[in-house]
Design brief:
alpha+beta; Four Helix Bundle (Hemerythrin (Met), subunit A); Alpha-Beta Plaits; 5 domains; five-stranded mixed β-sheet; 19 helices
Length: about 675
């Protein structure tokens, strides 16, 4: 009986991407040892590193051959032959060669991801790169491959156009970009044929009108320059997955579906494997044997407890009450341990997200001619798998901006009395129920005068605005803001730091920036350990119970009515440590007539989101507890001011408040002088 090999494909893809990650890490380690050398200087690589790199490629070659992925197997074979020359000292190891091998890693990753998505053709630029790799064998590796020459000249007679895969990010509209407008601009360059992919379109009741669920595959038949097409997409390059593949007369255009998870081919900004957004999400988790054993033991304890309690189901006597209470205590303890054990299975080291940063730093620093040292600590800190996958974009944006905007050039650093090599420190640690990640550089810090000037120039703030230093620093998070003089491949589009705050807020966390002019910048990301269970503050408004994420809570106050400030045309303000904060009456927002109306009779909870502090008026505080997060949109619809829901111990549903939305609502009311509409 024939064995169905397709059942092993997913395992092959995951193991291949992990092997490529190991290969890239070793190449970056070798590159760091060669720091300060010229790109052509010869270097003796240690055998263990070379063996790890060779084994990674050899494993991918063997698996791809077995499963019939010939495109992957052919490229792996060429790369394996080159690595064998290096191991046998038939090829000189230089920084230039390391760059070539890193490009090879990018190409092989793209081919593996294409195979996972059913694409079995070789992109034109990867095909040419493979030919050049073959030419290196037996030449002592003296040939230099320039990344800028990776794309075939479009003047050749065999050019037939371009195949374009365009997959916008779900929230692209929030950045002010419109995919349809981009495609219309493309038609001005020539005739196109597009196919619309609607497979990601949810059911009608689950559609959010502010999100994009569509993607396009575009057949462009004009033999124009690739740079002309890239210019059309330049405004959305950080908000989409874009794949531009050259067609030739001898190469039919791919007819497969758009590739939502494929990195741009051999791009200097290509993220390392595991990068959120553009990378493939891992659909399985490798669990250590002790964790599985502990889970099995707990299930066994639950079965024993269930058997014990079932004996009391028919009749309860006064004599059995004590045994029943003992059994319920066991059930509570075992359930709590089972919950912690299951959640532990989803916990992965945050190093999965941090390990892609060295490649980002290397590529960007070389492109900008800067010397950068990256220090990473706390990689073993555990975080929920879904949080790790979602925060990859934010970390990449921050580190890329630190290299580009934060750190000075070597000459500027020497003139300022600093070492010519800049330092970026990334540290992860667990504090209570959250994980804190700090990214700190020793650069020049944020130029507040320039930031304020640019914000006024772009009409993001009023010219006569009187902002504090902290408010000026936080202007970098406004959508569309950038201090870059021109748009480059690294930055300048004004979407990077906006993406950071948006992504972290979606995860229920927050971002803080500490600016030290002349000495550097420090950004602190606070993230919940998991998105499935959270610590919440239970409050009561009328007869309803609401949950406030504990991560957002600062303090609770009881404020006499006479201490409330009521400026004309604005919202009411509550005094808080020397400043006045706007506050929101939840009974007005949710139209609850039975709630406490007088401020002095209730409690004001001070919360913070996106560096905005506000107050929430509630009747009373019920207590603090862990709650299981349930999606509200899946069962009902989206409600303004509500993030998700949970089920309380008495079976009642409690709404979990969206602090970011509430902060925007109350600040809009405060600044615009409009009345806040009550939401039922």
């Amino acid at each position: 009986m024939a064995i169905d090999l397709t059942q092993f494909h997913q395992t092959f893809f995951e193991e291949s991407l992990e092997a490529l990650s190991d290969m890239e890490a070793e190449l970056l380690r070798l590159d760091s040892h060669m720091s300060g050398r010229r790109v052509s200087d010869e270097f003796k690589a240690d055998n263990e590193s070379l063996n790890i790199i060779f084994r990674a490629v050899h494993s991918i070659k063997g698996g791809s051959s077995t499963f019939g992925f010939e495109v992957v197997a052919n490229f792996s074979h060429v790369l394996e032959s080159l690595l064998d020359d290096i191991r046998e000292n038939r090829c000189k190891t230089t920084r230039d060669l390391i760059s070539i091998l890193l490009q090879s890693c990018d190409c092989l990753r793209t081919l593996v991801q294409n195979a996972q998505n059913g694409i079995n053709t070789v992109p034109a630029d990867i095909n040419e790169f493979q030919i050049k790799l073959e030419s290196l064998q037996g030449t002592n590796c003296a040939v230099t491959l320039d990344r800028r020459q990776k794309t075939r000249s479009i003047d050749h007679n065999d050019v037939a156009g371009w195949d374009i895969s365009f997959v916008p990010n779900k929230n692209i509209l929030s950045t002010g970009n419109d995919p349809v407008r981009i495609i219309r601009a493309l038609t001005q360059l020539g005739k196109i044929r597009s196919r619309l992919n609607i497979k990601s379109l949810p059911s009608w009741k689950n559609i959010n009108p502010e999100d994009i669920y569509l993607s396009w595959h575009i057949d462009f038949s004009e033999p124009i320059k690739k740079s002309q097409i890239e210019n059309v997409f330049s405004w959305v390059i950080d908000d989409c997955v874009l794949n531009i593949i050259q067609k030739t007369d001898t190469q039919k255009s791919p007819t497969s579906k758009p590739v939502p998870d494929t990195d741009s081919n051999v791009d200097t900004r290509a993220p390392a494997p595991g990068a959120s957004g553009n990378g493939l999400e891992v659909q399985s988790i490798r669990v250590s044997t002790p964790k599985v054993d502990a889970l099995v033991d707990l299930v066994g304890e639950l079965v024993i407890t269930q058997t014990m309690l079932s004996q009391f189901s028919e009749e309860i006597t006064p004599e059995s009450i004590e045994k029943l209470q003992f059994g319920l205590g066991l059930l509570e303890r075992n359930t709590r341990e089972l919950q912690e054990s299951v959640m532990g299975i989803r916990m992965l080291p945050v190093g999965f997200a941090l390990n892609k940063l060295p490649r980002i730093v290397r590529d960007v620093s070389q492109k900008l001619g800067k010397k950068v040292k990256l220090d990473i600590s706390g990689e073993g800190t555990e975080l929920d798998k879904s949080v790790i996958e979602s925060m990859g974009d934010a970390l990449m944006h921050i580190v890329r901006n630190s290299v580009d905007h934060g750190l000075e050039s070597p000459a500027e650093r020497i003139n300022a009395g600093k070492p010519e090599t800049g330092t970026i420190q990334v540290q992860a640690s667990q504090k209570g129920g959250s994980v804190v990640i700090t990214i700190e550089d020793d650069g020049n810090g944020l130029d507040r005068d320039l930031i304020l000037h640019k914000a006024i120039e772009k009409d993001l703030v009023a010219e006569d605005a009187n902002l504090t230093d902290e408010q000026i620093d936080n202007l970098i998070f406004i959508p569309g803001f950038s201090t870059a003089a021109q748009v480059t491949g690294v930055s300048g589009r004004g979407v990077g730091m906006d993406v950071v705050r948006t992504r972290i807020s979606e995860l229920g966390g927050n971002v803080e920036v500490i600016n030290k002019p002349g000495s550097g910048t420090k950004l602190t990301l606070r993230l919940p350990l998991t998105l499935a269970i959270m610590d919440g503050l239970c409050v009561k408004v009328g007869s309803q119970v609401y949950i406030i994420p504990l991560l957002s809570v600062i303090e609770s106050l009881s404020v006499p009515d006479q201490n409330i400030s009521r400026p004309a045309g604005g919202s009411e303000l509550v005094p808080f440590h020397g400043e006045y904060l706007p506050f929101l009456k939840l009974y007005e927002l949710f139209n609850l007539s039975s709630a406490v109306k007088n401020t002095s009779d209730g409690i004001i909870i001070i919360v913070e989101a996106e560096s905005k502090k506000i107050g929430l008026l509630v009747d009373e505080i019920v207590g603090q507890q862990q709650v299981v997060v349930k999606s509200l949109e899946t069962h009902y619809k989206r409600v303004e001011g509500v993030a998700t829901a949970t089920i309380l111990g008495d079976g009642e549903v409690a709404l979990i408040l969206d602090i970011s939305t509430l902060a925007n609502l109350v600040n809009h009311k405060h600044h615009q002088g409009h009345s806040l509409k009550a939401a039922s």
